[in-house]
Amino acid sequence: MNTKHLILTAISALFAVSFAMAQEDNRDVLKSYSYIEAQGGVQTPASDFFKLISPTAALSYGYMTPKGGARLHLNGWQSKMTSDYKYKYIDINADLLLNVTSLLSRNVARPLNLYVLGGIGHISSFDHEANMGSLVDKFSYNLRTGLRLESNITKPIGFSFEINANYAPMIHDKSFNNSKGWGFLAMLGVSYRFNRRIQKAEPIVPVVQEVIEAVDVVPAAPVIEEKKPEPKIVVKKDILHEEIFYGICKSDPTVGGQEQMKKIVQFMEKHKDAKVMIVGYADKETGHPSINMEYANQRAQKCKDVLVNTYGCNPANILTSAKGDTVQPFGESEKNRCAIIDSEIEFTVQE
What we know:
5-stranded mixed sheet, alpha+beta, 44% strand, 8-stranded antiparallel beta barrel, 2 domains, 351 residues, single chain, CATH 3.30.1330.60, Porin, rod-shaped
């Protein structure tokens, strides 16, 4: 397998691991953390991109927030000026990192994070070939820029793929090399995150519906013994509450939702004047608020369409509303992809 295929395979593996880790629910809010990371990969000067590839490794320590942070990065191993001239090097850099994905999504527990990084440092070379070592400088400043993909930052173990461009003119910029001072690195990394500062989510207090029991209204019985007592007039209340759940990015109910629809139809057939309210919701852990509001509207409206078009319910007695992800009625994120149907009506009967 050549180097290009190896890099593509590494990126694909990083995507797969990141999305698998993202399936876990995380309602707590991560504020900051420290980390240590080990990386390994390849590096090459700009002069001959794929023919002068050498192994490289790195260790780093950093402090991060969801929006970005800083790290101290120690990198080194081998490098080549030409196919016949090799040497070893150590590069110490201080880097700043900006999480670009935090500008596009409020969800801290996203499966992948894209960073832009830049820094400055010092590079030292040694163990030069005997006949070439006198032609190069052994020390140089180093300027760095690059991109970094990192898995879900709310997990203690992280995986990354990083590509760097390093400018060290005093070492690389030689006429026989023609690299113009530039070298490139591609590395895979595994990190351990510690000293994590997490803001716990507020517990969700369940809403308890209080149902007022029917009160018997008993008229005073006549004193005349010959007459039978008047019939009892009883006030009763019938309450409808159904919950229909949906898959992610779906506005058609799951199979179990058909049973709830039949119960709603039975209630409306029994109480012809009852007003039914359908409210759509969305899970704020996934998607953008505007998209979530659209799905919530679709879920409420499709419920109404099924009741009217399939079961013949009166559309004037069905009201719809949408909360999007502004209200989360359940503690479990996946349950918040739902529509909640409520109604109640009082009526009197004789007993």
